């Protein structure tokens, strides 16, 4: 008979096993912060300022990473986030410019717009986000396009449309004529993106809503079911088309909210460059947070931690690398995404040596490529000798893993017997 | 075990990769000084508006100034941060600077002079105790002058005028022209283009002004599109350094060199080759080396509170009152040069402002070699 204490430990253990990825992320976040604090004065001398900035950046990314996570959990993919951000910023600025009072020279004055205009612009932008999501759902469920293609079309098309729109709008509404940007000088609006707590509150509220939706409603359960096996979900009576509509609308609308916040932050709608490549950051955050690109797996809490983790690592690199920190960010985010997917695969297979990462000739080549990559990166950072050391070290470690995997496979075959 | 083996394994896996990356990056960059924060060395940073060989010359100027003015003795070192060409990229970097402790001064080439958020981020740096100057491209002086201590760079209006005069000297009969630039909102772009119109005079008519958002492929496409839309176009004007070679490429491809006048800003390495090959008629060249050199000297003086040096650089700065005595006293104009082919140019020194150097390509190349530069 188990004691109550034993039961409680067992419950906690089960919870910990279920949330091993989130706990791992949490510990890693604390570890990265600790190391950065040790090696950089900035965290010790300006802790509050740095915390505010990380939270602000995390929230801006987190808002649309939530939408990306829901789409991924539902078994889809949304590549259009960056372009929806640019498009939404342009729509929001266009509405503001159109409704702005005119100054003495007859030009729209965007420095004092008033609550009414701001609310109209934000509502209009969210409506456009809903329409973009609806278009995606129609292309996927009715026309039959794969989600990758449907959202790829938006990725390319919406940015282009926004660029043309801004030029046409400035030609029509401003005395200075055609420009590629719309400036919004209203300080209340700008505060939406620059005051650190406003994006944070929006992110937390959205996270709570998404968490309720996914974890506490039937619709949420159906989204997981559809992501795990769409055909089975459909056969069991779930209206998958409606669920996809919901998922893509949430994806597009969260991107629209992010578009408003990013535009407020820089005070400019500049669709040529705004949000460029951001869709990959959102997908990376969701994947690092434990979402499986095959669908049906992932948590809002994991996505939130994934976003925090990415931003903390990016900030740590910026603090510790004195020159060209952003050049290292790509490498680090890339490595983390690969690690996340590999770790999830390993976990799904049962951990340890249960997953073979280096089988056959492909595995041997992969060991060579990874060792070469590690050696090259180290050479660029440290010089030739450390590069060689890391190359040889990686080669030995990965070859060891390959040999251990092979031995584990043989053991399993022997245990299964000759007739299995 | 409270959290189970899997959770611990996950924590270890997640922690190891970024920590290795962070530590490697932090300890290994050769161009940086990873121990700067701990050893007390502070950085004097040039924040560019984008990536271009133009900045290489400025970096050389900064390094020479670092040596000549003994920045190491003052606990300072120079570094360059290359922006991605976007206002947000520049804002993010400035916000990052404000939250760091090892930055003494920043020289910013403002990506978009009209963008209030860039000016706010510059002000945030100042509030964090960082000395901020604008270099090469200024803030909107009417609204955001206080975002920087001073501006140091080319007088872009005069630069544009000189380029316009060069076009008028080469093609006295006038013509239709198109201007090509990276970011149309950048202050230097607006001023150069306006200056060009004034310098070229009434016989020239602008038919296009195309921005490429610092995308080289778009820069090429813009030239092609302009020629397609306006077959009568006979003067092509490169406003930013890389626009020169994009123009030359398209003109060569289409075989219209004999009927087209090509005048450009800046002497990018490729543009120098193009001028040597007779594919460019004239260049107005800034002096980024001098901007980097004097900018570094100014930043060191600001960090040390050396008001005499500031006064030396800015004669309208009163070292007693610690303020500028004239409205535009906070602008330090670096020199301009008109570079022309060694032979066969109709251009003459007297066509240009007295302060502008008039150099043959050979003389210009000699100057570059003396400073170990490939472009300017």
Number of helices of chain B: 14
User: Regions of chain B with pLDDT < 50 over 5+ consecutive residues?
Assistant: 27-38
Q: Count the DSSP helices of chain A.
A: 17
Mean of pLDDT of chain B = 88
Count of strand segments of chain A: 2
Query: Secondary-structure element sequence of chain B?
Result: HHEHEHEHEHEHEHEHEHEHEHHEEEEEH
Order of helices and strands of chain A: HHHHHHHEHHHHHEHHHHH
Distance between the termini of chain A: 38 Å
Number of strands of chain B: 15
Q: What is the subunit arrangement here?
A: heterodimer
Major sheet attributes of chain B: 7 strands, mixed
Fraction in helix of chain A: over 70%
| Rg of chain A, alpha carbons | 24 Å
Compute the CA-based radius of gyration of chain B: 23 Å
> Which two chains touch over the largest interface?
A-B, 73 and 64 residues
General description of the model:
The complex is a heterodimer of chains A (420) and B (376). The mean pLDDT of chain A is 89. Chain A has helices at 4-18, 20-39, 41-45, 47-73, 81-99, 114-143, 147-173, 187-194, 197-216, 218-228, 230-235, 240-266, 278-288, 300-320, 325-349, 360-382, 384-416, and strands spanning 182-183, 268-269. Chain A has 17 helices and 2 strands. Chain A has a two-stranded antiparallel ribbon. Chain B is globular and about 65 Å long. By secondary structure, chain B is α/β, with parallel strands linked by helices. Chain B has helices spanning 4-28, 36-39, 54-68, 87-98, 116-127, 141-144, 156-170, 187-200, 216-229, 243-254, 269-276, 288-304, 307-313, 361-370, and strands at 42-47, 76-81, 103-108, 131-135, 151-153, 175-181, 204-211, 235-238, 261-265, 282-285, 317-318, 323-324, 331-333, 337-340, 357-360. In chain B, the strands form 3 sheets. In chain B, strands 7-6-8-9-10-14-15 form a 7-stranded mixed beta sheet, sandwiched between helices. In chain B, helix 11 (269-276) links the parallel strand 9 (261-265) and strand 10 (282-285). Chain B is built from 14 helices and 15 strands. At the A-B interface, helix 1, helix 2, helix 3, helix 4 and helix 12 of A face helix 1, helix 2, strand 2, helix 4 and helix 5 of B.
């Amino acid at each position: 008979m188990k004691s109550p204490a034993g039961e409680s430990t067992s419950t906690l253990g089960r919870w910990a096993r279920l949330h091993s990825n989130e706990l791992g992320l949490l510990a890693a976040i604390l570890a990265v912060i600790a190391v950065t604090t040790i090696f950089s004065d900035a965290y010790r001398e300006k802790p509050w300022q740095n915390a505010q900035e990380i939270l602000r950046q995390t929230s801006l990314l987190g808002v649309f990473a939530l939408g990306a996570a829901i789409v991924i959990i539902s078994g889809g993919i949304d590549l259009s986030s960056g372009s929806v951000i640019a498009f939404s910023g342009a729509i929001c600025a266009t509405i503001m410019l159109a409704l702005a009072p005119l100054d003495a020279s007859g030009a729209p004055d965007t420095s004092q717009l008033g609550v009414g205009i701001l609310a109209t612009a934000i509502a209009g932008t969210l409506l456009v986000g809903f329409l973009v999501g609806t278009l995606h759902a129609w292309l996927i469920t009715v026309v039959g396009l794969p989600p990758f293609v449907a959202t790829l079309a938006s990725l390319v098309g919406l940015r282009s449309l926004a660029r043309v729109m801004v030029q046409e709008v400035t030609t029509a509404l401003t005395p200075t004529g055609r420009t590629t940007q719309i400036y919004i000088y209203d300080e209340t609006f700008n505060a939406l993106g620059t005051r650190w707590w406003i994006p944070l509150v929006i992110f937390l509220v959205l996270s709570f809503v998404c968490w309720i939706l996914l974890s506490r409603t039937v619709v949420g359960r159906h989204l997981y079911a559809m992501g795990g096996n769409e055909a089975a979900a459909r056969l069991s009576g779930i209206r998958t088309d409606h669920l996809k509509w919901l998922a893509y609308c949430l994806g597009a609308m969260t991107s629209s909210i992010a578009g408003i916040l990013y535009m407020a932050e820089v005070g400019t709608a500049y669709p040529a460059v705004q949000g460029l490549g951001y869709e990959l950051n959102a997908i990376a955050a969701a994947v690092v947070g434990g979402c499986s690109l095959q669908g049906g797996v992932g948590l809002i809490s994991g996505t939130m931690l994934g976003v925090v983790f990415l931003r903390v690592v990016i900030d740590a690199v910026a603090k510790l690398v004195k020159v060209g920190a952003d050049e290292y960010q790509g490498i680090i985010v890339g490595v983390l995404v690969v690690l996340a997917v590999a770790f999830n695969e390993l976990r799904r297979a049962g951990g340890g040596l249960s997953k073979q990462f280096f089988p056959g000739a492909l595995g041997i080549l992969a060991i060579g490529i990874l060792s070469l990559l590690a050696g090259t990166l180290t050479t660029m950072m440290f010089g030739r000798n450390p590069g060689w050391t890391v190359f040889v070290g990686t080669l030995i470690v990965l070859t060891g893993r390959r040999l251990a995997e092979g031995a584990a496979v043989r053991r399993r075959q022997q245990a299964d017997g000759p007739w299995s | 075990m409270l959290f189970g083996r899997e959770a611990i394994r996950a924590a270890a896996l997640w922690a190891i990769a970024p920590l290795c990356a962070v530590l490697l990056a932090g300890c290994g960059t050769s161009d940086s000084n990873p121990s700067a924060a701990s050893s007390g060395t502070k950085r004097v940073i040039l924040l560019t508006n984008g990536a271009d060989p133009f900045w290489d010359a400025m970096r050389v100027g900064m390094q020479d100034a670092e040596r000549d003015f003994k920045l190491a003795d003052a606990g300072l070192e120079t570094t360059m941060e290359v922006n991605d060409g976007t206002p947000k990229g520049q804002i993010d970097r400035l916000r990052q600077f404000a939250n760091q402790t090892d930055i003494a001064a920043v020289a910013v080439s403002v990506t978009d002079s009209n963008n209030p958020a860039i000016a706010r981020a510059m002000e945030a740096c100042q509030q964090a105790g960082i000395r901020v100057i604008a270099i090469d491209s200024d803030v909107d002086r009417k609204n955001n002058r206080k975002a920087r201590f001073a501006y140091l760079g080319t007088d872009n209006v005069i630069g544009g005028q000189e380029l316009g005069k060069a076009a008028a000297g080469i093609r006295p009969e006038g013509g239709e022209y198109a201007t090509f630039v990276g970011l149309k909102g950048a202050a230097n772009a607006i001023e150069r283009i306006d200056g060009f119109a004034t310098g070229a005079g009434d016989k020239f008519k602008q038919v296009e002004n195309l921005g490429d958002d610092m995308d080289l492929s778009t820069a090429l496409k813009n030239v092609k599109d302009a020629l397609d839309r306006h077959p009568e176009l006979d003067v092509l004007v490169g406003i930013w350094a890389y626009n020169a070679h994009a123009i030359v490429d398209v003109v060569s491809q289409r075989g219209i060199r004999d009927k087209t006048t090509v005048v450009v800003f800046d002497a990018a390495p490729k543009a120098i080759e193009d001028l040597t090959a007779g594919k460019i008629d004239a260049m107005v060249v800034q002096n980024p080396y001098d901007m980097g050199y004097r900018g570094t000297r100014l930043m060191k003086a600001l960090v040390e509170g050396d008001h005499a040096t500031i006064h030396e650089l800015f004669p309208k700065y009163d070292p007693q009152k610690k303020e500028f005595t004239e409205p535009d006293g906070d602008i330090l104009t670096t020199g301009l040069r008109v570079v022309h082919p060694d032979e066969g140019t109709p251009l003459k020194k007297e066509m240009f402002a007295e302060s502008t150097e008039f150099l043959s390509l050979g003389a210009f190349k000699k100057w570059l070699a003396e400073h170990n530069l490939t472009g300017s």
